[in-house]
Design a protein that fits this description.
Largest sheet of chain A: none
Oligomer: heterodimer
Shape of chain A: elongated
Radius of gyration of chain A: 20 Å
Helix content of chain A: 55-70%
Order of helices and strands of chain A: HHH
Order of helices and strands of chain B: HHEEHHHHHHHHHHHHHHHHHH
Number of strands of chain B: 2
CATH topology of chain A: Helix Hairpins
Largest sheet of chain B: 2 strands, antiparallel
Largest interface: A-B, 33 and 33 residues
Structural class of chain A: mainly alpha
Distance between the termini of chain B: 16 Å
Radius of gyration of chain B: 21 Å
Shape of chain B: globular
Number of strands of chain A: 0
Strand content of chain A: under 5%
Strand order of the largest sheet of chain B: 1-2
Strand content of chain B: under 5%
Structural class of chain B: mainly alpha
Number of helices of chain B: 20
Chain lengths: 111, 498
């Protein structure tokens, strides 16, 4: 059920990127996609009433949370941050050049 | 011997930080060129190592692979390593002269080497998540490099590229997450082993679609191509050469081949190959038709990249040994001549100050080296004998006929003729004809830029020799074998660990 939420978030982000005409809103859409993926990765490792995956001789190895997706999500967050920072800095430079965030007016290239 | 593998990642990564810290321009020139030269020589050595030792696996931090990250050197990796480092060396040499007009040369080299790190790491890694990390590393560096000139068009192209490419990376990450939850492992060989006994299911098909979209955006295959004709021309010329020459191949085509043939095991599934062929022909034709009408030389070249990637995909999509050989050989050849053409366009831009073909003309006497090398590359991309492009296109067309797909062969020939016509336009308008009055003061390029172009032109001229048995058996054939025996990838890698 909660995976459905990830999917909905992902689609909201994609919708935002495709429909919105404002650079900042596109960046927000990009972040929403990233967050939906982080949520998805963390959920993969989640166990109902699980405990932290620390090994000790007194405890049984039972019902541990999977630690690998947590390591993955940390890496993915750092990468996402780098992309986000670069995107925002380029959006600022674009604003300096064009004086607007509207992508209908930022079109010197024809694609 | 396997201890040499992490150097392909560590050396450029360390050099990038060293150059970024040290602001001295001369030092940056020297060190970056030394770094790429050493990497190029090392990559040539891997050919010999592969021949004597076979497939090799390096365990990062000595953790056994299903848990730790591994680096895998096999035929396909060697082919890509040599291509990437060859083009990086030539582009870096060209940058010495070309990047003089930009400020912050040391930052440029730092980003360049980071991008190289990402590509080397991506082709070496044997771990799915590691593949994503290197994909993003190369990607982020290339976004910054496309915007390096910070003019309005460059920023705009970079933003467009970044948004589309990040969506691609998001699809890849989603695919990796699903693959992990399905198989509980991230090691490619281990995933391949588990998927091979679970067989084809709806989950693997869905993961396949996610990867196809993700890597398809990176490779600029036709429905996902709109970022490429903006992003590649906007970057500085050596970076255009890197992006068009190797980035779309390492991040896109290599990743598709590795993931689909070796990991997911779709390899020789007829439906999958049919999809590859259709995408290939679409890219080939749409790219070349859009290219003909262009007057901006770099934009024209960028559209041709889409078209030539189509040839590679078509060749591999045939699924026969000959077709895969042709596709992979064309991948190598395209890297060489497309990089050379982008360096030529950069040279024209450097000397004349414009990229518009209509404003050039009569440069033949003024820039003989640029003219000769550009002619070599143009004939090569159009498939004129004896240049390397002819041989790979010939193999692809023969393989189409051999695999009983004469329709695809027909389209490949048409695409080749259209390519020839558009490059005749380049030659005619840039180099021949009456010189324009403003062209009086133009001089030939600085020696290091000439050297880089001559180096690539020689490879274009003699590239066909790679088909001789002595070169073919050690360079191209192992890569073909990796794809043909994609379902045995897990066994081969596991055997190396014992």
């Amino acid at each position: 059920m909660i995976y459905l939420l990830c999917m909905i978030l992902f689609c909201i982000g994609l919708y935002c990127i495709i429909i919105k005409r404002n650079l900042i809103k596109i960046i927000i859409g990009m972040s929403i996609i990233d967050y939906s993926l982080f949520l998805f990765l963390v959920l993969i490792g989640y166990r109902m009433e699980g405990r932290a995956p620390i090994y000790s001789q007194t405890q049984q190895v039972k019902n541990l949370v999977d630690p690998i997706p947590q390591a993955l999500v940390l890496t993915a967050i750092v990468i996402g941050l780098a992309v986000l920072a670069l995107m925002i800095s380029i959006a600022i430079r674009l604003y300096e050049k064009y004086g607007t965030f509207d992508i209908n007016e930022i079109r010197k290239l024809r694609g | 011997m396997s201890s040499m593998l992490p150097l392909f990642v560590a050396f450029p990564l360390g050099s990038a930080f060293l150059i970024a810290l040290c602001k001295n321009k001369k030092f940056a020139d020297f060190w970056a060129n030394l770094c790429t030269l050493v990497l190029f020589i090392m990559s040539l050595q891997t050919i010999g190592i592969l021949k004597t030792h076979g497939t090799m696996v390096y365990k990062m931090g000595n953790w056994a692979p299903p848990i730790g990250i591994s680096l895998v050197l096999d035929g396909l990796t060697v082919l890509l390593l040599v291509t990437v480092n060859l083009i990086a060396f030539a582009s870096c040499l060209f940058s010495v002269g070309y990047m003089e007009k930009y400020t912050a040369k040391s930052k440029y080299y730092a980003l360049f080497l980071l991008m190289l790190t990402g590509m080397n790491g991506l082709v070496l890694t044997g771990d799915m998540f590691n593949l994503f990390v290197f994909l993003e590393l190369a990607g982020v560096a290339s976004y910054a490099l496309v915007a390096f000139g910070t003019e309005a068009e460059e920023l705009e192209a970079s933003f467009k590229y970044m948004v589309l490419s990040s969506i691609g990376a998001a699809f890849v990450l989603l695919g990796i997450g699903m693959l992990y939850s399905y198989t509980s492992t991230l090691n490619m060989a281990d995933i391949a082993r588990i998927l091979s006994y679970r067989g084809l299911s709806v989950t693997t098909l869905f993961i396949g679609v996610l990867f196809m979209v993700g890597f398809g955006i990176k490779a600029a295959i036709v429905p996902f191509h709109p970022w490429l004709p903006d992003a590649h021309p906007s970057a500085p010329a050596p970076i255009s050469a890197m992006l068009s020459g190797v980035l779309i191949k390492a991040l896109g085509i290599y990743a598709i081949l590795r993931v689909f043939f070796c990991v997911l095991g779709f390899g020789l599934n007829p439906a999958f190959l049919e999809i590859l062929r259709i995408l290939g022909v679409l890219s080939m034709m749409i790219g070349v038709v859009l290219a003909i009408g262009q007057w901006d030389i770099k934009r024209l070249l960028a559209y041709h990249s889409i078209s030539q990637v189509g040839y590679v995909i078509l060749g591999i999509g045939l699924g026969t040994p000959l077709g895969i050989l042709g596709g992979l050989f064309h991948l190598f050849n395209h890297s060489v001549f497309k990089s050379l053409l982008f360096l030529n366009s950069g040279g024209l831009d450097y000397a004349v100050g414009t990229r518009n073909l209509k404003q050039m003309g009569g440069l033949k006497e003024k820039m003989p080296v640029t003219e000769k090398t550009c002619l070599t590359a143009s004939l090569s991309i159009s498939g004129i004998p004896p240049f390397n492009g002819f041989w790979s296109k010939l193999i692809i067309i023969l393989a189409c006929i051999q695999a009983r797909h004469p329709g695809y062969a027909f389209w490949a020939v048409i695409g080749s003729i259209l390519t020839l016509s558009s490059f005749m336009k380049v030659q005619r308008y840039a180099f021949y004809g009456a010189p324009k009055k403003v062209m009086k003061k133009i001089k030939e390029l600085p020696p290091c830029m000439q050297l880089a172009m001559i180096f690539l032109a020689i490879i274009c001229l003699f590239g066909g020799a790679l088909l001789l048995p002595m070169f073919k058996n050690s360079f191209l054939q192992p890569a073909v074998q990796v794809l043909l025996n994609g379902d045995k990838y897990a066994e081969i890698v596991m055997a190396c660990l014992k």
